[in-house]
Design a protein that fits this description.
Helix content is about 80%, strand content about 0%. It is mainly α. The protein is built from two helices and no strands. The chain has one domain (about 5-125). The protein is rod-shaped. The longest helix is centred in the N-terminal third of the chain and has 74 residues, at about 5-75.
Length: about 140
């Protein structure tokens, strides 16, 4: 074997040694990129579900307040005596409390469902935990 062939072989081996880590890093970055894209989709689905749930919660609250206002106005318009007014006011507040309790329970259930679905989806993505926002669940509105 000639010195020229040995030098050429050494140069080629050296170039491959430098290039292979770059190819490996690109393959790893691509895999991580697809995992992060998967995680982004899971987050988008969660956020969409939470947005829909909070809108429904707000609508339920608004409806409860509107219904209460109407019921109280009707109660104070009664002319059949203080007992009837007292019972109508009590009934208006009772219905309001029930509506608000139902709205909170529905919100919490929807919120928990969105986060549960997200956790399942994000686990299947196998994205690095360092990029997930799963630890922020406690920052959500509680519905109290």
């Amino acid at each position: 074997m000639s010195a020229k062939n040995i030098i050429t072989g050494t140069l080629i081996a050296g170039m491959l040694a430098l290039a292979l880590p770059a190819f490996a890093q690109t393959a790893t970055s691509t895999a991580s990129s697809s995992k992060i894209t998967c995680l982004a989709s899971a987050v988008a689905a969660r956020e969409g579900a939470i947005d829909t749930a909070i809108a429904a919660f707000n609508q339920s609250e608004n409806s409860a307040y509107t219904t209460r206002a109407s019921a109280l106005a009707s109660a104070y318009a009664l002319t059949s005596g203080n007992g009837a007014i007292k019972n109508a006011v009590k009934s208006a507040w009772s219905a309001f409390s029930t509506s608000m309790r139902t709205a909170r329970m529905t919100w919490r259930s929807s919120q928990q469902s969105a986060w549960s679905t997200f956790k399942t989806a994000s686990k299947s993505c196998k994205a690095p935990a360092s990029v997930s926002d799963a630890g922020n669940q406690g920052a959500e509105a509680s519905g109290n």
